[in-house]
Design goal:
This protein is of the alpha/beta class. The protein is 27% helix and 29% strand.
Length: 299
């Protein structure tokens, strides 16, 4: 059954030599939140530049929130949405670089702690996280990525196993085509809140749905997370029959260059997985697992 979400990723603007006054990131955040207030947004992801004025080794506290956490919490409560807010935290006396997920009542739904802080951040006392974290929210299952994390396949592979609906990537670093790889491998949407006018929303095939610019500092998209990702082989010949039966209750998005496809259910009665089972469609992960087993047996 369709699960339609309006999602937004806010970019952060940083001067070349870091001459911003203290609190500049909060000013930028508040400007963006004014534009999003009351628009029906379901998920907002903030940029890692929210840590700009926070020195390494310092942080806000969940039980005694400072201006960043307060802004995230209040917006989530006011708009009955989910906010994935980047912030330096102090937890149990330890400094962390984190994403805090706030829910519809301003409650903390979960946390992600940066698994791979930079060497410089670790030298200044930042404690690394243990691995990927998926948080169940009204905006689907969310996974977090912070900046330097994107370079490490072990975190990506955590999320392959955890199967989030949306990856919330908050970063000073753009990540380039590495982002696309993460979306494709995890079969997830990505809301990428980046710096310098280039936030992006990616679909589960790694394609850009929307991108911000210097003139439009919020990337926004309307997505459906009720999806089934598959390879064309053994499946594509069934697509015409599925379309004939379900018509506008389904959308099958075929990406010929990658040979992948995504089936989205817009039905009130059946999910994408229900339809996949009805037509014995094989997921892309199962297809490749079968190929590996076939090769092994042939040897």
């Amino acid at each position: 059954m369709a699960k339609i979400l309006n999602i937004a990723a806010i970019n952060g603007m940083v001067l070349e030599r870091g001459e911003e006054p203290d609190g500049e990131e909060l000013r930028q955040l508040n400007e963006a939140l004014v534009n999003l207030d009351g628009t029906g947004v379901d998920l907002v992801v903030t940029c890692e530049t929210m840590m700009m004025s926070q020195k390494a080794g310092t942080g806000e506290e969940l039980d005694n929130p400072g201006p960043r956490l307060t802004a995230f919490r209040d917006f989530a409560k006011r708009n009955k949405c989910v906010v994935a807010g980047a912030c330096r935290l102090i937890l149990d006396g330890n400094p962390r670089q984190s994403i805090v997920y706030y829910g519809h009542e301003g409650e903390v739904l979960g946390l992600y702690h940066k698994m791979f802080p930079t060497p410089q951040a670790i030298a200044k006392g930042t404690i690394p996280g243990d691995g990927g974290t998926v948080v169940d929210t009204p905006a689907g299952k969310l996974g977090g990525i912070l900046c330097f994390d994107l370079n490490f396949d072990e975190l990506r592979d955590d999320y392959v196993r955890m199967a989030p609906d949306i990856l919330c990537f908050s970063s000073y670093y753009n990540g380039g085509v590495i982002k696309n790889n993460w979306a494709v491998r995890t079969r997830a949407f990505m809301a990428c809140a980046l710096k310098d006018g280039c936030s992006e929303i990616l679909d589960p095939l790694g394609r850009t749905i929307n991108v911000s610019t210097y003139y439009k500092r919020i990337a926004q998209a309307r997505i459906n997370i009720d999806r089934f990702v598959m390879h064309g082989s053994g499946n594509a010949e069934k697509f015409p029959d599925i379309r004939r039966k379900y018509k506008d209750q389904v959308f099958i998005d075929e990406d010929s260059p990658s040979a992948f496809a995504v089936l989205y259910s817009y039905s009130d009665d059946v999910t994408a997985l229900d339809i996949a089972r009805e037509y014995e469609l094989v997921s892309v992960d199962q297809y490749f697992a079968d190929c590996r087993n076939l090769r092994k047996n042939a040897l």
